[in-house]
Amino acid sequence: xxxxxxxxxxxxxxxxxxxxxxxxxxxxxxxxxxxxxxxxxxxxxxxxxxxxxxxxxxxxxxxxxxxxxxxxxxxxxxxxxxxxxxxxxxxxxxxxxxxxxxxxxxxxxxxxxxxxxxxxxxxxxxxxxxxxxx
Length: 134
Known about the structure:
The chain has 134 residues and is mainly alpha-helical.
């Protein structure tokens, strides 16, 4: 005769079961991404006359005028920057000098002047000489 030993098992109360279930749900979920999110840019979609005039003064002397440079510098949307480039091209403030893509032409300011390498080297030497004297 084999005798089976039965262990006395303590039953959990309903309160204990509910407490255990709630404690699991309350734990924070694992976040796999620790990186920072990119901030949303609030660029303007309309432009005032004064802002148009200030952009016109700056754009004339720029070396390269692209949608990205106008959009980033002036905090305006890209579609508005495209229209501004067309506007300034029609007035002659920017001049096309090549193309990057089938639809995108590269522009530069009409008053932008290329400096010769000799002038740049002379300016660099002058600056270095001034720093060493101090």
